[in-house]
Structure formats: C-alpha cells, structure tokens
Design brief:
By secondary structure, this protein is α+β, with helices and mostly antiparallel strands. The protein has 8 helices and 14 strands. The model is unreliable at 10-71 (pLDDT under 50). The longest helix has 19 residues, at 26-44. Strands 2-3-4-7-14-8 form a 6-stranded antiparallel sheet. A 4-stranded mixed sheet has the order 11-10-9-13. The protein is globular, with a radius of gyration of 19 Å. It has a single domain (47-341), classed as paralog of FGE (formylglycine-generating enzyme) (Alpha-Beta Complex), CATH 3.90.1580.10. The structure holds calcium ion (2 copies). The site of one calcium ion (CA) has 8 residues, from helix 8. Residues 98-341 form the Sulfatase-modifying factor enzyme-like domain. This is Formylglycine-generating enzyme required for sulfatase activity. Pfam families: FGE-sulfatase. Keywords: Signal. InterPro entries: CTDL_fold, Sulfatase_Mod_Factor_Kinase, SUMF_dom, SUMF_sf.
Length: 343
C-alpha cells in the first residue's frame, strides 16, 4: 500500500450475497415501501434534463420474496422513508444500519467543465445518458465502515488521525478496501452495491447545474456547501497557502452533513473528502463511455479516479468537473467514498 501525501491536487498548481432476511410480516410492508419510494422519487428529483427512464426507475429490482429465497446476513428492519426538511428530498435505507440513500432518476447531461476554467483532463465536454440509480446521501462514515469490520466483511481498521470516528467520513482506505465494503454491503442487503461510475458521480454532483458548482459560479459560497481549506484550516496549516478566504470552521474532516445539501439532496459532494469512483484514470474524455458506465478499459487502471475536492483543497478542486486520481492501493486522510446501489 502507498501512503498518499497531502498536497495540492492536479489542478492546484499554484502552490503546490445474501440479502436481507425478512422480519416477521415484513414482506408486504417492504413491497409497499419500495412502491412508495418509486412514486416519491418521481417528485424527489427533477433533473433539468428530461428523465428518460421513468419506467425503469419505478420498477423495484427485487421484492421481499426474492430476498427470502436468497437468505443473507443480519439486516435490521430499516426505518420508514425520511424526508430531509432542508432539501425536501426523500431518503431510504436497505437495513437499519446501512447507508442512507437518495434515489435519482436517470437523465442526460453534459459531462466535463463547461466554463473556461479547469484542465484538459476535464475535456472534451460530452453528452452522457445515465440510467436511474441510488447514491449515498453522505460520504461513508467511520460508523458504517467499522460495522463492516465487526461483521468481518472488511479487513482494515483505518486510522482516524484522532479526528474522531462516528459520523466523520471514513479516511485512509484504498480503492481496493472500498471494493471490499461494497461487496459486503451487497451480501448483507441482497442488492447490488458498488462505487459510483465517474459519470454517475458527476451527474449527482451537478444536480442539473452546468456551472462550476451545483450552486452556481461563486467560489466564495464554497464554505456554505462544503469543507475546504478555509481560514480555520489555514490557521492549522499555515504553510498551505492555497487556502480559501471563507471560513467553514473545520480544519480537517467534518461530520458528514455539516453543510448545505445540493439540489438532489446530497451532502458533501463538494469538499470534506475526495471520493473514490470505479473508473480507471484517463487523461481526458476522448473515447469515454456515453451510457453512464464506468470507464475501466484502457487508460491507467493502476490509478483510480477520485472526485469532489477535500478539506485540504482550494474551492477550485470542488468544482463539479474537477477530477484527480491516485494508486488504487494508496490511501490518504483526504480520500473516502460513497456508495451507489443499482435499481
Ligand atoms: Ca475547512
Ligand atoms: Ca466529498
């Protein structure tokens, strides 16, 4: 494994299977829940581009009966759907102790940087059609990771740098470690969990917006929406001169959901920790898939893409199009991930 140094990222040059066991009488309730979720999701997320697979997204992948036949790991009955009062979006879980998910309808969007900023890595701008999927409302937390370790689904107990575990995003895990987690989560729930494709990640981060950020163009708003290298971070790390002028009050990682959610009801897509996605690194988007799938051929598959910027970065790394990559066997205190569940 490689310990990745904290540093300015590529574009910061200036300074540097077994599903849930149904509970008693839960089968009918589960079916109703899935059906209600599909209905709610029609209203929960309305991409600027017309959704084109409503039929698909409204169809649950597996009913409780299928789950009963497969058997599986312990999966406490999940709570009812929750509506986030801050964003108005609905979330759900497969088990009481698995990550909270927001269901996104499919749609078509332009992937890459739309403005004159950014790097050649983020070009050419290209159209991608993304099928519907569910994605973690938050970055995966230490609590969620540690549950996988206790269940012997994950091997590594990552160092938290004494910043705290609980609701802080898990850090110091490699891309390979993240694969272990999603495999375990799939076995536990009977659903198909994986890392997001890079296209899915950007679709979710943009939340229908074509500008630099989901909230528009202004980097000065970064501290409202995410944890960056801010005034507080600058006091802790005075040699990191690429800091922003706003103050988000966190020098290192922040508990997930400490900032405003994006229009799709997702938190910390910008900042806090970079997020591993499935794709191999490619220097640009020439030849990239246009169907929303991960790009896992060609390029450099020893390096895996991570997105969204982190607590040690200037807001320019938080742009929706910003991208970077590291060895899939490397880890750092600035990289975590969030899960995707296929519908
Ligand atoms: Ca900060
Ligand atoms: Ca993030």
């Amino acid at each position: 494994m490689w310990l990745l140094p904290q540093r300015p990222r590529l574009n910061e040059a200036p300074d540097s299977t077994g599903p849930r066991l149904p509970r008693s009488g839960a089968a009918r309730a589960w079916k109703l829940r899935v059906a209600a979720l599909a209905l709610l999701s029609l209203f929960a997320v309305a991409p600027l581009h017309a959704a084109d697979d409503e039929g698909k997204s409204a169809k649950p992948s597996a009913g409780a009966q299928d789950k009963a036949q497969k058997g599986g790991l312990d999966c406490p009955e999940p709570p009812p759907f929750a509506t986030d009062p801050a964003t108005g979006k609905v979330s759900y879980r497969d088990c009481a102790d698995t990550p909270e998910l927001v269901r996104l309808q499919g749609g078509t969007f332009m992937m890459g940087e739309h403005t004159s900023t950014g790097t050649l890595y983020e070009r050419p701008l290209h159209e991608v059609k993304v099928p519907g999927f569910s994605i973690g409302k938050y970055e995966l937390t230490f609590d969620e990771w540690d549950a996988c370790v206790r269940a012997r689904g994950c091997v590594k107990t990552p160092d938290d740098k004494n910043w705290g575990r609980g609701r802080r995003p898990v850090i110091n895990i490699t891309w390979v470690d993240a694969q272990q987690y999603v495999h375990w989560l799939s076995r536990k729930t009977g659903e198909k969990y994986r890392l997001p494709s890079e296209a899915e990640w950007e679709y979710a981060a943009r939340a229908g917006a074509e500008g630099r950020y989901s909230w528009g163009e202004g980097a000065e708003w970064a501290c409202e929406y995410g944890n960056v290298l801010d005034v507080t971070g600058g006091e802790t790390f005075p040699n990191w001169t690429w800091r922003a002028t706003c103050d988000d009050k966190f020098a290192t990682t922040a508990p997930v959901g400490s900032f405003r959610g994006n229009p799709y009801g997702l938190y910390d897509m910008n900042g806090n920790v970079w997020e591993w996605v499935q794709d191999c690194w490619h220097n640009d988007y020439n030849g990239a898939p246009t169907d929303g799938s991960a790009w896992t051929s060609g390029g450099e598959c020893g390096k895996r893409v991570n997105r969204g910027g982190g607590w040690g970065n200037h807001p320019r790394s938080m742009r929706s199009a910003s991208r970077d990559a590291d060895s899939g066997e490397g880890f750092s205190n600035a990289i975590g991930f969030r899960v995707v569940r296929e519908n």
